[in-house]
Amino acid sequence: GDVLPNAMLDRIAALRHSMQWLRTEFRKRIPEAIVKLDEALRELQGYIRSGGETTSKTVTHEAVTGETRVTYTQEERLLENGPLPVRSARGGWEQNPAKDPKTIAKYYKHEPGYPDLMARIDDEGSYSDIASFSGRIRNEKLRGGRKIFRLFGPEGDTFDISVGETKAGGKFWSLGDEPKTAQEWREQCAVLDEWNRDGFIVTGTIPEGQTINAATGVVSEQAGRKLAGQYLPGGAQQAVIDFDRETQTELIKLGQQASHTGKAIAWTDPKTGMVFELRGTFWPIDEVNGKWGYADLPDPAEVRTQPLDSHEIADKKYKDNAP
After folding, report:
1. pLDDT over 70 (residue 75)
2. Cα(90)–Cα(106) distance, rounded to whole angstroms?
3. Is the pLDDT of residue 143 over 50?
4. Strand partners, 237
5. What would you report as the CA-atom Rg of the chain, rounded to the nearest whole angstrom?
6. Which end of the chain is more exposed for a tag (fewer CB within 10 A), N or C?
7. What is the pLDDT of residue 58?
8. How are beta strands 237-240 and 172-175 bridged, if at all?
């Protein structure tokens, strides 16, 4: 009392009381919050396992739009920014309609400066880039710190089917951290055996303060054509990025070099400032090819003549190694 005024002493006493209250409340409320979180996660798990669409679509909506909270919402709330990814009858993420431009407009609209997903039509009259997505496709500026990856590798045979070389440079990339296993990559990124034999990965990180224009969304399901019987559900986040020709050419060259020497290569793109790393995945070959997505593994002698059932024919036919 000789040094500090009574008002200050009263304030200190109030702060001490408040801190003690916080200690008590922390001990009581944090366990309560964990219990509620566990209950919410179990409810989510139950909805997804039972095929309940409202919850699974809400979670995907939050992930796609970058919002931080998962909430249970009205159906009109889910549709506010365009159609959301939906589950197909096979359990994967249904492909977008890809033939009628008026229908496609509900899912995607090209904006100047971003990749044009309507620039390519396949031999069946489909916009195959559109069908590679499920639900709304966003024109998005990928900001500093975002990670992308792409798997590539030399040519080879899978179940007696010839699979061509997959190149490190291309426009289809996956978003986020690289997959931990071949199963995660095959199933979530929906990369068929007939497209890509893997072996190597190129990762890239956008530098802070920089942005890259991309078309982003959820990967749609895929069913094999040459290798009938393979089905991959999709569900990962992917981005279409139009790197300039010099960047693509250098990535292709470095990818072939890494594939030939087996040594990791780091490269900073002078055009974008992105730091790329090219290296082997080192997954066992029998864990990568001819294993995931088959109800029954095909006989190598039959895969060239086995007919496709109607439910196994997919609209999406983009090549993962397309330039």
Report:
1. no
2. 23
3. yes
4. 218
5. 25
6. N
7. 41
8. antiparallel
